[in-house]
Design goal:
Four copies of one chain form a homotetramer.
Chain A (H helix, E strand, L loop, with lengths): L2 E6 L4 H10 L5 E7 L8 H4 L11 E2 L11 E4 L5 H8 L5 E4 L9 H8 L6 H6 L1 E2 L2 H10 L2 E3 L3 H15 L9 E6 L14 H4 L4 E2 L9 H12 L6 E6 L6 E8 L2 H12 L5 E3 L17 E6 L6 E8 L3 H16 L15
Enzyme class (chains A, B, C, D): oxidoreductase
Function (chains A, B, C, D): Catalyzes the NADPH-dependent reduction of N-acetyl-5-glutamyl phosphate to yield N-acetyl-L-glutamate 5-semialdehyde.
Keywords (chains A, B, C, D): Amino-acid biosynthesis, Arginine biosynthesis, Cytoplasm, NADP, Oxidoreductase
Chain lengths: ~350, ~350, ~350, ~350
């Protein structure tokens, strides 16, 4: 049996990535694609790399008949997402890729996103979509909130260490490098090729990046106390990829063992042999996350490096993995594509 | 039933690409991987992006037991390829990715590759692997010679036009742009990142590029007379991709119709609407080739632009497509992966 | 004695490049910088790479007192440029970098730029700014029109050949590759890093690119008859650089000799030894143009490749070279910076 | 009066960068260029971007007559450098760009570079070439040891803070991103374009990078106790540039003031307004270093980001700056070139 999916906001990069992945998924077919500003256009016109697929044309959300839809992927900007989802049928399964349902606490949402949440009851219902840590809740959920792409990367590196009490919670430094596609397709001067090529810079420094809301919520919950990590993202001239370098205080071997043991059975999380560190190009185009651990000549200091593809495992791949769970399909279906290198 | 494949020369980019593609192919499994200089290493060490796959370790060719192998992909350097293949079992199906069996005429081989061919009888047996034009011969073949990646791109643009007598055979200019992975993983100063980044240059100008041997052979055979095109490749700072701009004398609409009509039923060749031209990023990571046609304000002049991924449709994807035919499998099996963009 | 310069439209790339070049020029100082949308900002805020310079803040054009200005560089969008210049003092020396004064014929301007010219008398007064071919006119001019960057590159390759009657005027194919900074700092979806990186595509094909107006005007004037070349630009993922591959019918050695002889005394135009071809990275950041010539195995066919930096020799460097002439300064002053490689 | 310079090892990137800079220096002329493997070739053949300069051909070191040479720049590999310099005239001024004379302690040299030093007396004589901190010693020196490019960047960020006792010496984390040209022109598989493009990875992690020897020596000397920082470099796909993100414990405002005050009069070191952070593209092609400071929501944590061009301020520009001092020339001569952006 094939499940019908709608993708709302299909004219952005995460929407296109969903289409790419679902294209080889045997159990899901795309029944509707919305893209308000590009309504009426063929998906192959907006994204010529998808032109070989037999897809519905882009439409407006209000034109979609949701009665035959089993699951909706919502790849809309935050704030718009909560408004749209509030109007969708109450029994429709939804995977939201925006930031709207990641933070359970309304005050936290307003703090990081600048205005009150307009759909509080939905926010309470939503399950945080970090698959490997909320698998059973996701399986039972109607509404799953995709995580931030940076947030996923860092959590894969750190959650098992916090859970096991292996590291100093007051001294976690995460220096993150991320690719340009994470900024989406919106027009900003500093996202032009001529500005990004041959450049690297730190942004949202000083504890101002919105994904910190997710770290605060998740790490504090695990630790049972407030945890505030240092987190500085740097934009690097690559299309896809996030690489997080996490500097922690704790025993390197214990850290490595905790990660290797926790992720040993996970199909998409791969812990490298001790001392080996991953590169972005090892995972691009795929749903895998590679994690490496190194000690230091300074005793008790450990470096954990995690890397994944922001559009896939960090966003649309995660969404499809969660959708598989919600639909009762094998979790890895449509997601075992090998990375593309070089 | 699953077919067993060996990949000889698996430590290069085309070898790795074969593994990537076969990884999601339901009917072929990889039984052996050779890589002489890296024999003994795990494939995941040589190519960490393939580390999630359950693969045999790299070995030396002489360590492979070919008795259980149904098909061998030979991704070795030219000259070495003919020597190795001559020693393989005479009933083994082989897809060769080197240049060794592309030219039927021994003199032509020596002219372009600088020494006489050492396995003439095999050369005579080999079928030229341009799938869309040699499909039936390939289906029946034991030894198929993969085409040059540039050669494939330009032939997709021009063959139907020459067949139909639509263009002036004495005035064909092909200006080609290709990505860096086409040069393989061998160490050359001018392939270093610092030399290639931010640069574009023409190489093998003046009718000296070896793929001209393929053009001469194929175009002359179609036309029934000698055809000598002008062909200048330019290296551009991208990893994957070939984009050929072919300037011909002929009616633009007739050219477009000939291509659209010839390729209408082809699963991997896509002719765009008249006047629209493709970009490399529309096909990267996939087995598709996109072709566009434009007229000019100068009457009777036509531009045909074709683009494909040199490692996939230009090499390993083509090889797998041919292997599917040789093994009696559906031609598109394992090859319908959508391009990865951005 | 130091000359005072104003730069109008200094918040774009060509404006910034003018500042970079003039920064080391001993005879010119920058007295005013305009940038309407960024008026009030320091230049070092808009362009942090210029923050070490002691520069006037950006202002609105109407705030500039032109009484003490010796020369104005006008780096405004076309159409706006003619309106602004018409209001400037009638005795002010002006180098215009827009397209507004390149075409002498009003009908041609309207044909390529879509509306009638609003300052016809200025258009008649303007001298075409291709320094090496209009040197004496530029020296005497009040208003010099900078050439298109693509237009300069191709003219350097072809003018001496047309002048000498060495090539077939009805069969000139120019396949051009250019860097992204040529599109300026304006916001377009297809100029985002994620869209341009790893991509190459042809645009303005079919004889529609506006620089054709310059080719028509200049080549026809030289030849004494209508000349219509084929010209297709391709965008490549580099910041700076234009590389034009010109396919002509004519004797290769004669072509090489004509170029070498014509440019032998030119400080910025460098003809390579016969058979050697230049790369973009040989000229980036400088005012040099490198030109190479190759023959072909097809007798009578010749490839001329010219490359320059679009922001420097193709635009702001050319403008400064012309300003030097107009101000009676040594032509190469401030322009002998070596290219930056790698 | 013009000083004569020899550049030993001119066929590498730092040698070419020295030539680029000296080309516009009014007080130094290049009298000899050595490059053993390319001896006999013109510099313009090895580096076409320098072809417009009137330069001596590359020769072997033993062919140079040092009697007329005022200063030698030695851009040779480490170990070779000490052997060559030991044979040069004892009164020749020398700026060495290798690692051979950076570490004063012989045991440290052997520890980091794997074999004993062969010219200990020279090592004792050498002055560490971090201009802004050893200016007077350099002015008086005969032999100056250029610093590591990463080492310079991090020291610019941290020295004033350690001097002023503003930060916790036991908790300094430096996450560094550097461009590919830092690896030089030597042939390594992982420096190929296809391997580096679209990738970021950490290398020499765990306290194994050789530049740590410089940090240990310098920071411990300033602090009067052992200081061991954490330092992890990451390779990013840019040609030129180092960006060091230094996470320290100390008051952000005090840190900013210490840097701003210490560097206020320095011509090449620029401290940005508090809270603003620099990007690599702000300094590429120049001798400038930009430094920014940010606080954090976590009280008492400070981020210092420093960026410079590894080939210029990190290597050849520093060398020329030191040579200016050694020759009694103005320190900034030949070095005020503005960065090239975009």
């Amino acid at each position: 049996m094939t499940h019908s999916a709608a993708i709302l906001g299909a004219s952005g990069y995460t929407g296109a990535e969903l289409v790419r992945l679902i294209a080889t998924h045997p159990g899901i077919e795309i029944a509707a694609l919305s893209g308000d500003r590009k309504a009426g256009m063929a998906m192959g016109e907006v994204f010529p790399h998808l032109a070989h697929l037999d897809l519905p044309a882009l439409c407006k959300i209000e034109e979609i008949d949701f009665s035959g839809i089993d699951i909706a992927f919502c790849a809309l900007p935050h704030a718009m997402s909560q408004a749209v989802i509030a109007e969708l049928p109450g029994d429709l399964k939804i995977v939201d890729l925006s930031a709207d349902f990641r933070l359970r606490n309304d005050g936290e949402y307003e703090k990081w996103y600048g205005k009150p949440h307009a759909a509080m009851e939905l926010q309470q219902e939503a399950v945080y979509g970090l698959t490997e840590f909320y698998r059973e809740e996701i399986r039972a959920a109607r509404l799953v909130a995709g995580t931030g792409c940076n947030a996923a990367t860092v959590q894969f590196a750190l959650r098992p260490l916090i859970e096991a009490g292996l590291i100093d919670l007051d001294d976690i430094v995460c220096d993150l490098k991320n690719g340009v596609s994470g900024a989406g397709r919106s027009l900003k001067e500093n996202m032009l090729f001529a500005e990004r090529s041959e450049d690297v810079f730190a942004y949202s420094a000083g504890g101002t990046h919105r994904h910190l809301g997710e770290f605060d919520q998740e790490f504090s919950a695990i630790a049972g106390r407030d945890v505030r990590i240092l987190f500085t993202p740097h934009l690097v001239p690559v299309n896809r990829g996030i690489l997080a370098s996490c500097y922690v205080k704790g025993d390197p071997q214990a850290v490595h063992e905790a990660l290797a043991s926790r992720y040993g059975a996970e199909p998409f999380l791969r812990v490298l042999p001790f001392g080996r560190l991953p590169g972005m190009s090892h995972v691009q185009g795929s749903n895998f996350c590679h994690i490496g651990v190194s000690g230091d000549r300074v005793t008790g200091r450990t470096l954990v490096v995690a890397t994944l593809d922001n559009l896939c495992k960090g966003s649309s791949g995660q969404a499809l993995q969660n959708a598989n769970l919600m639909l009762g399909l094998p979790e890895t279906e449509g997601l075992m594509l090998a990375p593309v290198f070089p």
